[in-house]
């Protein structure tokens, strides 16, 4: 510092070392900022490439479903919001536009690409039925497109039948209503929708219940969105305990396959037993054996149903 001691006459003098330090710090900060901007540019470009690859232009033109930005979904995709995990990917619960939603994050490479994916999403966006989970939107700015669905509050029929997770009482009337409405949803998919839709994995875990115990069929998208070359690999979600034997043998999925699987669901509804009873015994086999022995169907009913049905205390 130099000056004659009078006010306002002192000036700062930087030594060469100080100047070098400031210059180095400034250079580092500039490099950090430039690197950050470069990363943002690359991420944006990558997102644009994924958007195009996943059929974004087609869906934009169709304007039938909301296209979410990756940044909108990112806060939801954390472990604390994970509510499900399977061969297809992960499911997260969160809020978007002040609504509870379920986000399906598929395994990379497990879904269709380009126009195929876009066309399937357009078809699903037109599936509107009170007993089918509604597709709200999707995110195409990632390698494997993420799907956004309405969130169904009371969990799956499987959980309500076989665990105390939700503690929802399913009396005879509730079970009959669930069966009838689920059948209505399947019938819509098979014959009333704009295009025939086969589910391929009908089971209690894929029938969700809302606050009023109204059933909503879910995961019918899996068999349609799964990549064609993945259909006979472990990435296909399908439960052997509910599969049509003909489908297992011949590999041909039909409406009858769904109807068979739904029949197993009905057996679970009336008996409250799991589809697989033991390693060598199933619910279907047990029911057929009881039928051969000419036992009454009511003997197969859950005790709670029988007691309520006959007014027992």
UniProtKB/TrEMBL annotation:
<keyword id="KW-0067">ATP-binding</keyword>
<dbReference type="InterPro" id="IPR045274">
    <property type="entry name" value="WAK-like"/>
</dbReference>
<keyword id="KW-0808">Transferase</keyword>
<dbReference type="GO" id="GO:0007166">
    <property type="term" value="P:cell surface receptor signaling pathway"/>
</dbReference>
<keyword id="KW-1133">Transmembrane helix</keyword>
<comment type="similarity">
    <text>Belongs to the protein kinase superfamily.</text>
</comment>
<dbReference type="InterPro" id="IPR001245">
    <property type="entry name" value="Ser-Thr/Tyr_kinase_cat_dom"/>
</dbReference>
<keyword id="KW-0418">Kinase</keyword>
<keyword id="KW-0723">Serine/threonine-protein kinase</keyword>
<feature type="transmembrane region" description="Helical">
    <location>
        <begin position="20"/>
        <end position="40"/>
    </location>
</feature>
<keyword id="KW-0472">Membrane</keyword>
<dbReference type="InterPro" id="IPR000719">
    <property type="entry name" value="Prot_kinase_dom"/>
</dbReference>
<protein>
    <recommendedName>
        <fullName>non-specific serine/threonine protein kinase</fullName>
        <ecNumber>2.7.11.1</ecNumber>
    </recommendedName>
</protein>
<dbReference type="InterPro" id="IPR017441">
    <property type="entry name" value="Protein_kinase_ATP_BS"/>
</dbReference>
<dbReference type="InterPro" id="IPR008271">
    <property type="entry name" value="Ser/Thr_kinase_AS"/>
</dbReference>
<feature type="binding site">
    <location>
        <position position="105"/>
    </location>
    <ligand>
        <name>ATP</name>
    </ligand>
</feature>
<keyword id="KW-0547">Nucleotide-binding</keyword>
<dbReference type="InterPro" id="IPR011009">
    <property type="entry name" value="Kinase-like_dom_sf"/>
</dbReference>
<dbReference type="GO" id="GO:0005524">
    <property type="term" value="F:ATP binding"/>
</dbReference>
<dbReference type="GO" id="GO:0005886">
    <property type="term" value="C:plasma membrane"/>
</dbReference>
<dbReference type="Pfam" id="PF07714">
    <property type="entry name" value="PK_Tyr_Ser-Thr"/>
</dbReference>
<keyword id="KW-0812">Transmembrane</keyword>
<dbReference type="GO" id="GO:0004674">
    <property type="term" value="F:protein serine/threonine kinase activity"/>
</dbReference>
<feature type="domain" description="Protein kinase">
    <location>
        <begin position="77"/>
        <end position="313"/>
    </location>
</feature>
